[in-house]
Write a structure and sequence with these properties.
mainly alpha; 195 residues; single chain
Amino acid sequence: MTIAFVFSNIKMIRRYKEILYGFGLGLAMWVMDAAMHARLGADVHSSGFIAELVQPGATQLLFRGGYVAIATAFGWSLWRSNWRERELRALENAIIAFHRQLDSPAMRIASHARMLQGRPGVMRDELARSVAEAIGEDARTIDELAQQYMRFSEQVMAGRTSEAIETLRAIETLTGGKRSVANASQSVASSRPFM
């Protein structure tokens, strides 16, 4: 057995643990019913516990199969109800990781743009100044988007769906407005002749 195979099985067990618990509960009820029938049927027939467990009669097989099916269905319904929560938690973790990865590059870009804007040569050249300003504005937009997505994640996890939808609409509005400004500044910069 390889380690990857073992880890994939552990991951599968963790993912579907409610269904497996339900199935295990059904099997436990099967064993308890077999023990009860072996104990009660000792006077009638002497088949014993193992024979009752492995080779039950038709009626016992029907009831025990029902136990396993009902318990497994219960486990599946519990798994299904917890699935949404797990998916939301995964989404929140992904957004937090995204924000952490995005935060420091955005801050570096903004600080480098400020350094460029402070240089006398850049301030005299209008094209260089407009590019430095555009870079700084884009860095601020990236930081603002990351903060909006963090807020969206917190609202989803708290169950405030209507607020989360409004946050997404605000993000779309923000990115739409910033794109039109960025496109306009790019067209102005590209229309200037190179020196």
